Amino acid sequence: MAYLVHSSHLQFVSLWVGVVGWILTGVAMGLVQWRVWYVADLTFVTSGVVWVGIWRTCFFSHVLVTAELEDMFCQAIGFLDPYAPAEIPAAQALMVAALAVGIGGNASAIYALRCVYFGRPERPVRTAFALAGALQLLAGACALVPLSWNLNSVVANRTISFPPRFNVPPAPVSQEVGAGIAVGITAAILVTASGLAFLSYRFPFTVSPRKDRGGFETSSMGVSFSQQSVSVGDESSYHGRDNQAFQSQESL
After folding, report:
1. What is the pTM of this model?
2. CA end-to-end span of the chain, whole Å?
3. Which of 194, 160, 180, 140 lies closest to 13, judged by CA?
4. What are 60-117's pLDDT values in tens digits?
5. DSSP label of 236
6. Residue 105: which residues within 8 A CB-CB, separation 6 or more?
7. Can you tell me the distance from the alpha carbon of 113 to that of 12, in angstroms, rounded to the nearest whole number?
8. Strand 56-60 relative to strand 210-211, pairing
9. 126 with 202: CB under 8 angstroms?
10. CA 216 to CA 210: how far, in whole Å?
11. Do 74 and 58 touch, CB atoms closer than 8 A?
């Protein structure tokens, strides 16, 4: 099945690219550093830096501590919390959707490559690669929408009215893009690239060798031998008449 294997080198590499992108999507979703706020009020925020993620808000403090970390104070952000701007619950839903759809895309690509390496029929291979590409593109879109939305909020320096229990000032002095958005955009690009590679797969024109009328094994895409140029069994066309030794024996 070497001809099938050679036709899917790009897709094999793209599977690993898609897996790395899917892992980075999960990493970005869990990072708290989506927005980095710099605040002037150091009453509770000892370091002057607040990390705003899509699931929680954290900052270092020597006044407020948690049971998990001695110096870090964190508060969770719920999907239905009224103070959360629209881009945060949207990011919670769409990033989870990106992970779920990405699993389906990678699984479909694995099945397609299995068909290639084990010589399965043409239709399952093409269908599986097409499905993998479509799912990977959808996963990339699901991640890019909330990432771009939150990136725009950082650039516009939009504020979030956190409740008093968060102990976060209502507006930062300035804010910048955190590692969560950077990692997420990288992951979305990798996932999208893998999806395009899966969609670009083309099945070979021929999948099995055949024999022509002269008995030579050829491929429909190769150069076939002409029967007339290698005809052997035609007695009327070949009797060895040009051989002088044969002519001397006949004269006897």
Report:
1. 0.73
2. 60
3. 194
4. 887 776 655 567 888 899 988 888 899 999 999 999 999 999 999 999 999 988 888 7
5. G
6. 18, 131, 132, 133, 134, 135, 136, 138, 139, 191, 194, 195, 198
7. 7
8. unpaired
9. no
10. 8
11. yes
